[in-house]
Write a structure and sequence with these properties.
Order of helices and strands: HHHEEEHEEHEHEEEEHEEEEHEEHHEH
Structural class: alpha+beta
CATH class of the largest domain: Alpha Beta
Shape: elongated
Number of strands: 17
Number of helices: 11
Strand content: 15-25%
Strand order of the largest sheet: 1-2-6-3-7-17-8
CATH superfamily of the largest domain: Zn peptidases
Helix content: 25-40%
CATH topology of the largest domain: Aminopeptidase
Length: 424
Amino acid sequence: MHIDQATIDAVLAAIDRDELIKLVLDLCNIPAPIGTGGQAGAFVFDWMAQEGFAPRKIGMTPDRFNVIGSYGGDQGRNLLFTSHLDTESPLYHPDDRFGMRPETVADPQWLSAWLEGEIFCGHAVGNDRGPMACFLIAAKALKRAGIDLAGTLYLTACPGEIGPDPVEEHQGPAFLGKEVGAAYMLAHGGVAPDYVIAAEGTDFGVNWVACGYVNYCITLLGTSVFTPLLTHPDASRDHPNPIVRMAALIEVLQEFAKDYEIRYRYLGAGGTAVPKVQIGAIRGGNARSIGGGTEVCSIYVELNLTPAQKIGDVDRALKGALRAANLGEMSVLPYVMRHGSEADAGEIEPLRLALDGAHRAIRGRPIPISAPVYSSMWRDHNVFNMNKIPALTMGPMRWRPAIADLLECTKIYALTAIGVCGHI
C-alpha cells in the first residue's frame, strides 16, 4: 500500500541507532551454539515483555523454545518476521577434535560479538541475531511513532535452524534440530500469517527459493584380516579392509557431486538454486583394537535438494552411481530428509512489492534477487512455503555487517510492515 511521507518520516525518526547497536551486542553476546538457544530466547522474551509485545514461549522442550510476540490489529493482512536463535558453531564437545582444529574451536567469534570501528564482528550478528534485532527495533519504532497497524505483525525467534540432526546413537529430543523451531512454532504457536519474512543476511537481496537436503550414511562392509596375514591386492577397490576401499568410493562421490550441481541446477523466478554435495564425516574401525583392520566403514554425505527435486529420484541416482562402481557389499541409508520449496511467484508478489517499495525509499533502487548462495541453502522460509504461506528471505550484509547496514535493514523492515499490514 502507499505510505504517506509523514508516516515514513515519523517511523524513521523513531528508530534509535544507539538502541539498535546495544540490542545487537547484548543479544549476540549470549552463547547459543548448535543445539542450544534457551538463554538467548529468554533474553528476547524479556525484551519483548518490557516493550509491550506480549510474548509467549512455545517449545517442544523447556530449554529450546520459540518466542512469539505481536503488535497490531486484526483488520489487515498479517506479516510474520522470523530469525533463529542458534548460531553455527562447534559442538563444544570432545568430538569436536575430530572435526575442527583446536584454534578454530577457540575463535571468540563463535560465542561473542563486538564492534571494530563501524563493523560488527561475531558469527551471531550475521547468523542470525543481527537481523532479529533489526525487526525487533523496527517494531518498537512503529509502536513509538504511534503507527497502529491494521493487521498483525508477528515477531518470532526460533531455535533449531542450524541443527543438529539425530543419527545412530545420537537420538531423542536433545538431538532434534529443525523440528523444534519454526515448524513447531507454526503448528503450535497460535500464529496466522499471510506472509513471512525470514530475516537473514542476503546482502540486501531477496529470494523465495530455498534448498532442502538429504543426509546419507553410506557403509562399506569388508573382512577383518590379522595384520601378519594381510596381502595387498593390486587395486585398492579389491582390498578386504573397507577403509581402503573407501578411497575409491570417495572418488565416485566426487564425480557424482560435480555432475549433480550442473544437472540439477534450478533457475526460479525467486532465485537460482545450485545443489551441492559434500562429505561431512567418516567412521570406521576401533582405534583401541586395530590388529585385524575393520569390517565396517561409513561415510556421511549431504546432498542439497532444490524445489524441483524429489527424494525418490535423488535416491535412485545416487544408488545407481554407487552400484555401477562395483565396490563390494554396502548399504546406502538416507537418515535425514527435508525437501526444498519455493513460494508461488504470484502469491508472493504483494510482499515483494512492499519490500521493493521500502528498499527504494531507503536505498534508492529496486530490490534485487539475491545471489544463488542464498537460494541454495536451508532457511526457515522453507517451513512456511511448504505450508502454503508465501515466504521469502531478505536481510542485510551477511558477513560482518556495518552499523549502517543494520540501520538500513531496520528501516526497510519497518516500512515493509506498514506496506503489508496497513495502518489505521
